[in-house]
Design goal:
Distance between the termini of chain A: 37 Å
Oligomer: heterodimer
Number of helices of chain A: 0
Structural class of chain B: mainly beta
Largest sheet of chain A: 7 strands, mixed
Distance between the termini of chain B: 41 Å
Radius of gyration of chain B: 14 Å
Largest sheet of chain B: 6 strands, mixed
Chain lengths: 116, 114
Amino acid sequence: GAVVSQHPSWVICKSGTSVKIECRSLDFQATTMFWYRQFPKQSLMLMATSNEGSKATYEQGVEKDKFLINHASLTLSTLTVTSAHPEDSSFYICSAEGQGARYEQYFGPGTRLTVT
Amino acid sequence: AQSVTQPDIHITVSEGASLELRCNYSYGATPYLFWYVQSPGQGLQLLLKYFSGDTLVQGIKGFEAEFKRSQSSFNLRKPSVHWSDAAEYFCAVGAGGTASKLTFGTGTRLQVTL
């Protein structure tokens, strides 16, 4: 089946710094990618939807200047958490959807971000 | 806006016993419904989905789910649970439209005792 990878799987950064998380579709072209945030023992909350070559669409309440999303190619999307704060510590998950395959989302394993 | 409720936060069953995980949704039109399983270190895996047609849906790993419009439910079932089924299970609803946006429930953690 389709595989989505995320890198890194775990990252610790200091407050005020920025961190980039990569999401790659390994064996298919992902025209749409989604970024979710998951708090411990809670559900996945959609942060934004990104389409290759265009600006991401952010969900209400998500700061677009803080969570920069770039979907520069059909196999790569990146999420950059800028000026990270401890409250940004969370589990970030991406998913990817192929062209013409609505709702066929394949999820990455997630990235654990800890901001100290 | 759509929403999903999974009333059971944690369920424990014995290996070989039957399983039913509850899911209730709120959505004005016919929803797209999904069940995903999340294991530690792995991405969410789609177990099954309902878009239309037969209300009893068969999925992978021996799971099935039944869409009941009158009850706004989409419960997941398995006749005989295996120890490897221990994981977190999420029900999700898709709202249609131009983007395949999913709204997830809070999840049910399944523990399997031997």
